[in-house]
Amino acid sequence: MNPTVNQLRLITYNVRSIQRPERLTDFENAVNNDAVKFDVLGLSETWRRGRETTRFSSGYVLHSSGADPTTRPIGTGVGFYVSASVDRQIEGIRFISDRIIQLVLNVRGRRKLRITQVYAPHSGHDDDEYDAFLEQLTSALNGRSFTHDYVIGDFNAIVGPAQRGDRCCGKHGLGDRNDRGEQLVNFCEAAGLFIANGLFKKRPKRRWTWLSPDAQTANEIDYVLTRHRAPIADVSVLSRSIFSSDHRPLRANIRLPHARRFAPAKPRPLPPTFDRLHLQTAMAVFAHQLPDDAPLSAFIQAMYAAQQEAARRPEPVPRISDRTRHLLARRSRLQPQPGAPPATRLQYTIACKAARWSLI
Q1: pLDDT digits over 75-128, tens only?
Q2: Among the four 212, 240, 259, 343, which has the fewest Cβ within 10 Å?
Q3: Residues of 36-64 as b/e, b for ≥16 C-beta within 10 angstroms?
Q4: Whether residues 13 and 68 fall in one domain
Q5: Domain containing residue 125
């Protein structure tokens, strides 16, 4: 590939709640490892309330848009999880609703990239609610145009392969189109969006994004929508869920010619501590070494040297113990695949509970 062409790794993932502290810790541990490569991670069904920006010691930032904190929990919430280097390039965040959030990213010069993360109403909601969601999404996408424009998330719809007359989806897909899938296709046709999942031929096990509780039904209901197909290098499901969820992450690799490279996040160092007696002794020693006519700059330099001499950098405390890390790895290994027998699902449930209790 041309070295001047960079790629943006964009993931959308239904996390099935990161509201409780232990779930958030579990999530951070799951995504902050070398096995998961991403620049922007869009989240759905976070269950987090209100509109907030949270900065973590790991160097990552979470922007989340949820339901009104004064109302009862309704299992919605969307967000973006990005490294500090990506966060510095964000021109703006729009906290639209508990189902839609947008960010605008500076990629080079005047070129902007807009990402809209969504969480659509599931089958337990009536069609009117789904239509209202699509209307709100249409309103969010209107107005300003962007060089790169992407809509990602859990649409709770089965689109399947393209049918006769379809212009917004490719020939590859999983399952038979349902009513919500038809609504989504009609929306994409009207909005000038293309469902990028269907551009790429994948085996069924690399296409499904959601697994039913009994592990007997696997559907493709998470999508990447785009206005231009050419920048999309690939859309693929990560082979295993990286977190305790019934969804798997969906990743799109997007070509960004001449774009800046985004550095991975680095943990913020803990502030040093000082022993008062040690600091006073060091200051006296360094000051005594100065001649009487020493300039002020030399005195300042001596005080700085004394501070460095007395500083004690605390060792960072691991966020999770080795035992918890082992339990999380075991949970990942036991995650059931489509058609898994009840015994396998029971083992996975027990592993999830053990990991969850170890995080409390």
Answers
A1: 899 999 999 889 999 999 999 999 999 999 998 777 889 999 999 999 999 999
A2: 343
A3: bebbbbbbbbbbbbebeeeebebbbbbbb
A4: yes
A5: 5-257
